[in-house]
Structure formats: C-alpha cells, structure tokens
Protein: Tetratricopeptide repeat protein
Organism: Paenibacillus cisolokensis
Amino acid sequence: MKQLEAIVEQYPDFLAARNNLALAYYYLGMFEQAMDTVRQVLETDPGNLHGLCNLAIFLQHEGDEERLAPIVALLSKTVPFHQEHVFKLATTMGILGYHETAYRHFLRLLKDPALHSDPCLCHYAAVAACNIGRYADSERLWRQAAKLDPESDIPRYYLEQLERMREEGHKDGHSVPVSYHYHLPFEEQFRMWENTPEGFPEHVKRDPLVRSSFFWALRHGDRQTKLQVIQALGMIADGEVKEALQTFLLEPDEEDYLKRIALFVLRTIGVHGPLEAVLGGERTVIEPNRMPSRLPVWDDRWQAVLEAALSRMGKRYDLVQQHDLLTLWVDFLSRVYPDVPKLGKAEGWAAALEYLTAKMHRREISYHEVSQRYGMSIATVSKYVKRIDEICGIKEK
C-alpha cells in the first residue's frame, strides 16, 4: 500500500495505480479512503471500467442499492474488447451476484487459445456455472482445471463439493454461492496447514492473492473465519500484517474478543509498543507489558505464570487457545484482587491454567501428563485447578 501511495503521489494521472490503491485500502478495511480514491479516478475518467467495477463493489459493501443500481445497469450492457477489461468485468459481476453475466464473459475469455489452458480461468467459469445451477458445465470446467493444474487440490476439492451438492438434491441452482477466488475455502486451508508438519507454507505467505483474501476475510468473514485469519496473519508477521491488525483494533463494530486475540497476536509477533484499541466502546491505549484488564497493576509474578505456561504450550496449542489461557488468568486475578493468593512456584499455577484451557477446548489431557510437563505434583496442580475453577466457574460454563 505504501508503494502505491508513493506512485500515485509521484504520478497523479496513473489511474491504474490509483485503482489498485483503492482496492488496497478496501482490503485493509480503510473504506473511506477506498471510496475517495475511486472517486478521484472517475472524476478524471468517468468511463474508467476498473474504477466503475471497484465503485460497484464498494457500494455493494456499503449496502447503497440506490447508487449501485445504475452502475450495475451500465456494467450489464458493457461488452469490453480488451481481455483485461473482460476479466475485470466478469469477476466484478460474479462478486455482485450476477453470475449469468459473469459466466458469459468468462466463456468469451476461454475461447481465446492463449487463455484456454489457464486453470484459474477454468475455475472462475466453473464457479459462475455452479452458481447458476449449470452443474454439468461446472464439472466439465473443473475437470479441465484439474488436468491443467494436476498438483493443485483446488479443482479436486470443488468437484467433491459438486458431487455432494448433487447428492443433497441441489439441482436448480439454489446452492450456497461458491467463491470466485482460486484457492480453497479458509476452513479447508487451515485444516490442511494444521495437519502439515511444516505448518504454514512459505509460498503461501508470499502469495499476494492469498494475502489480499486474508485481509478481505478479516473485514467481511464470519466470526470463526476471522479467528482463523488472525492466527494465519500472525504466522506471516510482516509490516503489512502488523498494520492491518492494528487497524482492526480500532474498528468500533468488531467484537472485543476478536480484538483481544489480535492484540495477543501483535504482542506475540513483536509489537511491544503502546497500542490503541476500541474496547468496550471506548478508545484506550494498551501499554507495553500491560494486560487489557480492569486490574490497576500487573505484577511480575503474574507475568511469570503466563510465561511458564506459554513457553510449554508451544505449537501444541493454537494462538486462540493460548489467548484463552491468558484471558482465564486475567479473569481469575481480576476476581480475587486485591486478595491474590501467594503464588509460590509459577509452574503449579501455569500447569493448572493449561489443564483448564485444554478442558475448555475439549482437548484430551490428564493431571499426570500436565504435572510431569511442569515438574509439579498432581496434588498441587489439582489444588490450583480447583481454586481457579471455584473463582471463575469453568466447569459450569
């Protein structure tokens, strides 16, 4: 985004860069900047197709049907000549839900010998066909994509989903709309990465399409998708990710729990300075080494318990589960403060926190296992588990 801003500043009439900057703002959740930027494009060139397509997507996001309708009417009658414009129009109409129009444009592109062997284009056409109930066409196109991209799991996955739709009786085009992105749905991607020893693949971290889809899902996905994306962004952990997560902390309409996960991820990936966030409807600053809580102080001994737990949990627990352990500990301390018990060895309380966190997430764990890992007796761990549970009511929840 910074590079695009620099290019636009240096070359104000470079409309392609300005259109891309509008999309970058949009994917990062900077909606007002996105709208301002696309308006600048259309003020300079009212017929700019990329600008009109971007504006249509932004207006759909805003729910402004009145302003969207004439643009959709114009786009529906547009028949571009250049391949780049045909592709932009096709994908835009698909995103807007006009799958029949999108399908027609994708077929135009596939007739070009130079594009006929593009598996991504076959996928886009298959998605449009599937979304209007033309399952035989979508099957043919996904099989073609599978031949052209035999190493990819994507066509294979959608062929399996198509078969499932048919088995469930979706014969009239009233199935759940399929995404136009040429990648697996987030849930499927995360399931595969979790089961892969090397974890998050390096090439995925560098893929700009995957990255932009993450930013999109962070803004527009459901709660579970946002949780997964925040964790995934924590694995990428570069400057752009840090900026996106810090912007997310300031969104007034996002859930506090999601923001606390994002805050935890930011601290985990090395952002140790003060962080601004909107929590409980109020703008606040989270200082370094300070937990977002009602506690007036944060004792080093309390921090030692967290560090003892998190250092042993490692990759066996995902970031959401690690955050929930932190939240449980803060909740316990907040409830008993100022009468915080003498903590003794940090490892005993850390073991109790891990045990209860595992139970909250329905993970298999035993007192014997956790006491061995922390070098504490079963009796000590059991006593601390009971104490935390009495105060926080974990088993009741």
